[in-house]
Amino acid sequence: MTDSTANADFRDPNTTPPLSNAVPLGLQHVLAMFASNVTPSIIVAGAAGFAFGGADMVYLVQMAMLFAGVATLFQTVGIGPVGARLPIMQGTSFAFVSVLTIVAAQLGMGAVMGAIVIAGIFHFALGSVIGRLRYLFPPMITGLVILTIGLYLIPVGIKYAAGGAATFQMEAESFGSLAHWIPALTVIVVALAVKFYTKGILSAAAILVGLIAGYIVAILFGIVNFGGIGKAAWFALPKVFPYGFEVNMAAVIPVVLVAIVSAIETVGDCSATTKGGAGREATDEEIAGATYADGLGSAVAGVFGGLPNTSFSQNAGIVAMTGVMSRHVVTIAALILVACGLIPKIGALIATMPLPVLGGGVIVMFGMVASAGINMLSEVQMSRRNMVIIALSLSVGLGLNLVPTAVQYLPGVLNTLAISGLLPTAIIAIALNLILPEEI
Fold first, then answer.
1. Cβ within 8 Å of residue 275, ≥6 positions away
2. Where are the transmembrane segments (predicted)?
3. Nearest-5° angle of CA 2, CA 6, CA 7?
4. Nearest-angstrom CA–CA distance, 182 and 162
5. Can you give the residue ranges of every domain in the chain?
6. Mind giving me the DSSP string for 331-381?
7. What is residue 54's predicted lDDT score, i.e. its pLDDT?
């Protein structure tokens, strides 16, 4: 789809394009976010010690699709004050991955789900005050946070591309072999070729096309196991607290703090959607509604074993590219995801994707997250003050994550916060930005 697809009326969120346009546009939104949506679930499943491709991982992938769709419906259709009623696509948030992997590994999935539900409720409550918190997150802070998320996750992509990690019970002697790197590199090369040498839906789904190409190569190398597909059902409803529900403050506090960052991210995506699609600023009502939908979507997902949701920036880019602001187009995308989430065989098929193939995709995705942060920071005046804030925040935040034993004597909650990577960076940056005087 190109700018010529859009009709001037399509810039009205309440306009319904003809199905001949609406269905392909909705599918385009799904393809653009599909790989990014399911990847966090696979990563957290691995940290929790779930067998790669096993029933628990399949279920998490299934919930990622189902509740991305449900949360998107909260945004596009709305319930009372909930929902921006804009074409905002929701998906599983990468921002929480750094914290949730630590919680899953140390405290278990019951603590993960308890933290997600509580953080979702807190996130929902932020909808009434989000406008007054925006001053805490100027572009320098937001860009730094996004950069930190990308830098924290990049090593995960390299480990996956080389063959996985101990949590996935991969053979140590095969780690780094060509049998792993060739499928991973296939994903990267094909994704780049499709992104820059094609247009429209195909270009928007470049990562997904790359993953399919890498998957085919992995089949040729004999590293794909289809055993789980036959065991999966054709239809299944989600379960209430399938991993239990535990309130552990060592999990709750960091996840709640990340929810604040996620809320600010949604404010940015809401503004980008209206600016790119309709050439106007988002209203206070739209921003509040988007934040309510974010929190409600995450809390509901946690009840059924899903991970937190947030708005997806790449889909805001699609709105800007096509000029189609119709929320009904994204509603179609949401219904596609809900249908996928109710069919476990789809989740089982995704879970057969070998780690090297996934690694090739996430190297690109995580690198793009870091690049987005750098892009935001490029708009910040690099004064000595701002450079000191960036330097100290990154050094301490990522340093403690890389050397967790440096704070091994901190009690549970503080230890989890300190080694999360994201939270120390964000807290130090916000504090210094408020304390240090502006340079004259």
1. 281, 282, 320
2. 30-52, 59-82, 94-124, 136-158, 178-197, 204-227, 247-267, 329-351, 357-377, 389-410, 416-436
3. 155
4. 10
5. 3-434
6. HHHHHHHHHHHT-HHHHHHHHTS-HHHHHHHHHHHHHHHHHHHHHHHTTS-
7. 77
DSSP string, 118-138: HHHHHHHHHTTTHHHHGGG--
Which residue in this structure is represented by tokens 């399949």? 58
- Mean pLDDT value across residues 411-440: 80
Contact assessment for residue 305 and residue 63, using Cβ atoms and an 8 Å cutoff: yes
- For 134-147, how does the pLDDT look when each residue is reduced to its tens digit (9 = 90+)? 777 787 887 887 78
**Burial code of 134-166, b = ≥16 C-beta within 10 A, e = fewer?**
eeebeebbbbbbbbbbbbbbbebbebbbbbbee
Asked if 287 contacts 131 with a C-beta cutoff of 8 angstroms, the reply is yes
Provide the residue type at 55 as one letter. A
Rounded Cα distance, 71 and 66, in Å = 9
Burial of 55 (0-12, 13-18, 19+ CB in 10 A): middle
Which tens digits make up the pLDDT trace of 231-250? 777 888 889 999 999 998 88
Q: Per residue in 387-415, pLDDT tens?
A: 999 999 989 988 888 888 888 888 766 77
User: At a CB cut-off of 8 Å and minimum separation 6, what does 361 contact?
Assistant: 35, 39, 187, 191, 207, 210, 211, 214
